Amino acid sequence: MLKNTIKKVYVIKTFLINITNKLGYIIQIVVCVEEEIIGYMTCWINKKQDWDIYITLEIGNIYVKKEYRNNGIGSKLIEKAKNICSENDIRVMEIKVLYDNESAKRFYKKHNLKEYMITQYLKI
């Protein structure tokens, strides 16, 4: 029942914030049911630097309220990110995921994102 309701009433609003420094553009996308924000995604378009091969769209975070999960909202956000890539001739989309966040890794794999890099750190 909830799944069908979400498909009918969700609204995605996109806010583009022009940052004049080297980061490029920050994009905030929110998903609303009526007036309630039930999810969001923050991403940015990284300008190509001399050492970069491609301009990238980096997803900083993606979130859907627990009671609205498994209704396709996260998938709609990923599709919106892919559309932003297509509209801006961006060929690479990336997101960082904690190594033990298995549900997020499954979600991104379902959307054809592949593991590419491992970040290592040292707590001091």
Task: Outline the fold blueprint.
Layout: H1 2-9, E1 10-18, E2 25-33, E3 36-46, E4 56-64, H2 73-87, E5 92-95, H3 102-110
Parallel strand pairs: 4-5
Antiparallel strand pairs: 1-2, 2-3, 3-4
According to CATH, the fold-level topology is Aminopeptidase
Helix content: 25-40%
**Count of DSSP strands:** 5
Tell me the strand order in the biggest sheet. Answer: 1-2-3-4-5
Q: What is the H level of CATH, i.e. the homologous superfamily?
A: Gcn5-related N-acetyltransferase (GNAT)
Q: Which of globular, elongated, flat, extended, rod-shaped describes the shape?
A: globular
Question: What's the quick description here?
Answer:
With 124 residues, the protein is an alpha+beta fold. 26% of the residues lie in helices and 34% in strands.
What does this protein look like?
Residues 1-9 have low confidence and may be disordered. Helices cover 26% and strands 34% of the residues. The longest helix has 15 residues, at 73-87. It has helices at 2-9, 73-87, 102-110, and strands spanning 10-18, 25-33, 36-46, 56-64, 92-95. It has 124 residues and is α+β, with helices and mostly antiparallel strands. It is built from three helices and five strands. The protein has a single domain (2-96), classed as Gcn5-related N-acetyltransferase (GNAT) (Aminopeptidase). Strands 1-2-3-4-5 form a five-stranded mixed sheet.
